[in-house]
């Protein structure tokens, strides 16, 4: 399955199955589908980029006087936001969700690992991450930093995203690239005597593409300007190059289920005194360039923005959900869908597929650009010579190169339209925006994206309220990254989510799925932080999901993770249209009432990543993540007194223990390694000293660091039992177990663990190739069994809760 990734400068190249354009994508046969791969080089520059106020290579405190003083660059505020001293009073709380308390949960210095995850969840429950209480990205507080710089008399310099070559990129825009030669980071105050943040309101003409292939992002920004309320959710009010100017700005972005407030300085890449990347036709207007910088910051570099889907930008600016329409198979009422989408403020984009890399950004004879993202900015029905004609308005983020066919700027068709209507439609020559007939649009373009700002009226003819649920999950090698259904041995270990559909759609619901009765819902699976990983050679994984109907005998049962046998015996009821390397895969379904299980996965097993699964249902529905309840079904352990222990075992013990009749850590290691050396079928390097120390600590009841006769007898019997289990689940008789075989072995031994515990166990006890040898298996089960039995002893009231003071907690964790 080769990855087709031709270098592109706009939308990722795609086959007919995806928006944008690109080389052919391998399709899967119905029986065993291959993944779709979406092309596009991560570091492409837009060749021949032109723009007013742009330039660069085409390949690819509080007063004006103070601001003028700073232009010389003598003073720079380098505060990064971490450990920043108090700078005046803290800003007032921005929401009723107790932001002060929430911040206490996310700012401790020494919180890492599992504790950090617990802390984050507590903060989210307090409302942190909602738009009105956005998370301070990288801990940087805009207001505190701004006040600090004003008081120190220095302009802000962002050390979290500094003006250095690494912030430009890593390959084509990397530190040693010829394409970055001559680039200098300058502030707008160094380029213009009167720089402005926004001039006469933010408009579509404020976005002109520079030398970076991020037309998909700029098309999304252009659509954002159509709705002033939406725009200022992303671009907060009150920012200026005059009053309170300190070289610092901030923007709010939706990132995988939560809103973040992103701080940037105003040092921008320039060449020959002009902006290299996005710029405004106004010249001295900089909100769009600074927004692009904030987006580059959260994604790791400017180069990480090259190539993408407009829907990414739509969703990161709104938190909405995107549905895709392939225009060759569009519904008959698509124009009405577009009209209603524009009326309710949805963001729309479109693109033209390409068939090979040679077509990337090729310009047709009617001046449409292939493999390039356009914004859909309007739709209007006009009376033309007595007939109503459906028109659609689009914008090229280049700010130039417009459609020259019917209804283009200056075309003869406009002479047949009422002058007042023509004036209303604001026909302007060569500004990148143009009208065309809807018939031509359907013929020339191949894909339409509609991002609904809220889950209302998805593909619907009228407004409806949708119920929404968001889950965060992970795929981890050896524990929860099982791959797709083509890998039946591991598919079952993927995260699982249950949907309970209860109410059918209204009788007049006729916009999807024909006349069959059913429950409509939409699933959207999004992988996280993949652009940020590009500098390490990692890109989007190939993802998708399958939906299974829960059989009658399991309906209403507790949330139990379904096992391998279920998936071997049952076919999926529905699934995503394809597995493809997009950031998000979404599909709309209509199924009968009942319970269903959704299994999101990568195409191949052992592909790691984090994801967000969003569920939208029109009617009442229940959802929950399926995971086993942590418990142990262990037989009562027979603890023999010294008198009851077999004489042969006593004799053996005396030989092994020596004169003190107790087995030390080193002695235990010698004993166990001598035993397993006789089992040639076991793949192991022997028990380590640390493993034996852990076992002694866990089994030592009197705390002297050694094992007496009774203690060693218990350990001995456990190891014999573990050996038989190990051999039973070493299915390929390799002498070791795979991580997935270990999961089944742990369950057979009587333990039910949730996926988070399995992730921790595989991380701790498996080798780099995910093999688990016998000594690690024994250490794991000894620890599990001892800790379960220890907890059971302390849980005297059987409520599943044990309380420790700090000393007891440290005593337990350090000794274990």
TrEMBL record:
GO molecular function terms noted in the UniProt entry: calcium ion binding; calcium-dependent cysteine-type endopeptidase activity
Reactions catalysed, as given in the entry: Broad endopeptidase specificity
UniProt source species: Moschus moschiferus (Siberian musk deer)
PANTHER family with a match to the protein in the record: CALPAIN, CALPAIN-1 CATALYTIC SUBUNIT
Main location: membrane
UniProt-recorded name of the protein: Calpain-1 catalytic subunit
Extent of Gly residues compositional bias: 50-59
Coiled-coil intervals: none
EC code: 3.4.22.52
Gene3D superfamilies cross-referenced by the UniProt entry: 2.60.120.380, Cysteine proteinases, EF-hand
Active-site annotation: 215, 372, 396
Region called Disordered, residue ranges: 1-97
Record keywords, A-Z: Autocatalytic cleavage, Calcium, Cell membrane, Cytoplasm, Hydrolase, Membrane, Metal-binding, Phosphoprotein, Protease, Repeat, Thiol protease
One of the protein's GO biological processes: receptor catabolic process
Highest taxon in the source lineage: Eukaryota
Pfam assignment, any one: EF-hand_8
Gene name of the encoded protein: CAPN1
Cofactor: Ca(2+)
A GO cellular component entry from the record: cornified envelope
Low complexity composition-biased segments: 60-87
All residue ranges annotated as the EF-hand domain in the record: 717-752
InterPro entries assigned to the protein according to its UniProt record, in alphabetical order: C2_III, Calpain_cysteine_protease, Calpain_domain_III, Calpain_III, Calpain_III_sf, EF-hand-dom_pair, EF_Hand_1_Ca_BS, EF_hand_dom
Subcellular location: Cell membrane; Cytoplasm
């Amino acid at each position: 399955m080769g990855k087709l990734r031709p270098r592109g400068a706009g939308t990722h190249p795609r086959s007919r199955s995806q928006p944008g354009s690109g080389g052919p994508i391998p399709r899967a046969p119905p029986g065993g589908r291959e993944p779709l791969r979406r092309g596009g080089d991560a570091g492409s520059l837009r060749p021949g980029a032109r723009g007013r106020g742009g330039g660069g290579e085409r390949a690819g405190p509080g007063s004006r006087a103070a601001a003028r003083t700073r232009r010389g660059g003598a003073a720079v505020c380098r505060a990064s936001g971490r450990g920043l001293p108090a700078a005046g009073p803290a800003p007032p709380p921005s929401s009723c969700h107790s932001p002060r308390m929430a911040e206490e949960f996310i700012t401790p210095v020494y919180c890492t690992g599992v504790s950090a995850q617990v802390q984050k969840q507590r903060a989210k429950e307090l409302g942190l991450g909602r738009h009105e209480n956005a998370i301070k990205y990288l801990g940087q507080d805009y207001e505190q930093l701004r006040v600090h710089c004003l008081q120190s008399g220095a302009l802000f310099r962002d050390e979290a995203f500094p003006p250095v070559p690494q912030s430009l990129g890593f390959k084509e825009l990397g530190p040693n690239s010829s394409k970055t030669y001559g680039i200098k980071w300058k502030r707008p105050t160094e380029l213009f005597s009167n720089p402005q943040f926004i001039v006469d309101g933010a408009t579509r003409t404020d976005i002109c593409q520079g030398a970076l292939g991020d037309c998909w992002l700029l098309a999304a920004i252009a659509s954002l300007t159509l709705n002033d309320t939406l725009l200022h959710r992303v671009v907060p009010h009150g920012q200026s190059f005059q009053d309170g100017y300190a070289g610092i700005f901030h923007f709010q972005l939706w990132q995988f289920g939560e809103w973040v407030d992103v701080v940037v300085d105003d040092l921008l890449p320039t060449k020959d005194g002009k902006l290299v990347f996005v710029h405004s036709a106004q010249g001295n207007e900089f909100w769009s360039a600074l927004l692009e910088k904030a987006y580059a910051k959260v994604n790791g570099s400017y180069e990480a923005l090259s190539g993408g889907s407009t829907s990414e930008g739509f969703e990161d600016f709104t938190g909405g959900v995107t549905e895709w329409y392939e225009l060759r198979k569009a519904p008959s009422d698509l124009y009405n869908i577009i009209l209603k989408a524009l009326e309710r403020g949805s963001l729309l984009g479109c693109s033209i597929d390409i068939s090979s890399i040679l077509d990337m950004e090729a310009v047709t004879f009617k001046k449409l650009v292939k493999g390039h993202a356009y914004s859909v900015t309007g739709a209007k029905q006009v009376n033309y010579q007595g007939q109503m004609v459906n028109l659609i308005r689009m914008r090229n983020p280049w700010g130039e190169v417009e459609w020259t066919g019917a209804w283009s700027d200056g075309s003869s068709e406009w002479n047949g339209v009422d002058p007042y209507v023509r004036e209303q439609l604001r026909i302007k020559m060569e500004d990148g925006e143009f009208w065309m007939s809807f018939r031509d649009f359907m013929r020339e373009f191949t894909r339409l994206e509609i991002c609904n700002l809220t889950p209302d009226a998805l593909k619907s003819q009228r407004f409806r309220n949708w119920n929404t649920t968001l889950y965060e999950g992970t795929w981890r090698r050896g524990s929860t990254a099982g791959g797709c259904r083509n890998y039946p041995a591991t598919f079952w270990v993927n995260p699982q989510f249950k949907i309970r559909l209860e109410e059918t759609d209204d009788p007049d619901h006729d916009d999807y799925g024909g006349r069959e009765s059913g429950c409509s819902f939409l699933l959207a699976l999004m992988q996280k932080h993949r652009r940020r990983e590009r500098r390490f050679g990692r890109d989007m994984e190939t993802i998708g999901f399958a939906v299974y109907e829960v059989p009658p005998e399991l309906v209403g049962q507790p949330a139990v993770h379904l096992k391998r046998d279920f998936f071997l015996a049952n076919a999926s009821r529905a699934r995503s249209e394809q597995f493809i390397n997009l950031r998000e895969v979404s599909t709309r379904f209509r199924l009968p009432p009942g319970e269903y299980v959704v299994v999101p996965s990568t195409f191949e097993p052992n592909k790691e990543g984090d994801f967000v699964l969003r569920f939208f249902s029109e009617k009442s529905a229940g959802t929950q993540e399926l995971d086993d309840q942590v418990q142990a079904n262990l037989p009562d352990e027979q603890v023999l007194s010294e008198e009851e222990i077999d004489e042969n075992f006593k004799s053996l013990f005396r030989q092994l223990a020596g004169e003190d009749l107790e087995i030390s850590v080193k002695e235990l290691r010698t004993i166990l390694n001598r035993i397993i050396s006789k089992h040639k079928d076991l793949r192991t390097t022997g028990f380590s000293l640390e493993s034996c120390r852990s076992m002694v600590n866990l089994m030592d009841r009197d705390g002297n660091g050694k094992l007496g006769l009774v203690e060693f007898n218990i350990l001995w019997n456990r190891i014999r039992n573990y050996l038989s289990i190990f051999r039973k689940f070493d299915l390929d008789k390799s002498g070791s177990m795979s991580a997935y075989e270990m999961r089944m072995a742990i369950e057979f031994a009587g333990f039910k663990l949730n996926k988070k515990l399995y992730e921790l166990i595989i991380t701790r006890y498996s080798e780099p190739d995910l093999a688990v040898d016998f000594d690690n298996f024994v250490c794991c089960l000894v620890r599990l069994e001892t800790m379960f039995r220890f907890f059971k002893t302390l849980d005297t009231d059987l409520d599943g809760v044990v309380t420790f003071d700090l000393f007891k907690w440290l005593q337990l964790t350090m000794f274990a």
